[in-house]
Structure prediction request, 101 residues.
Amino acid sequence: MGFFQKFARLLSPQKNVAAPVYWVHARCSRCGEELHARVNLYHDLSIEYAGKQPTYHCRKVLIGENLCFQKLEVRLTFDHKRQMIDRQITGGTFIGAEEEA
Ligand SMILES: [Zn+2]
Prediction:
């Protein structure tokens, strides 16, 4: 449980240093609430060495503010240039376009 709480805490609004971020926009499949999460491409990714180039991975758990409590689990995969190459979600669907700052 501590694992999920750790990720949930990352979702709280933070105004810190400008860093490359990847925005996740998703909609809860249960209540329809739109959830947004920011992935810091330098601090939130774990590197994995497999094959020629390493890849970066991030798992986010999104919890809405409604009385729904459904958890949306997002898994992102980035290549060695931190470009998103794969994303999966459970508990909801991806919506909209991602912005990369
Ligand atoms: Zn919901």
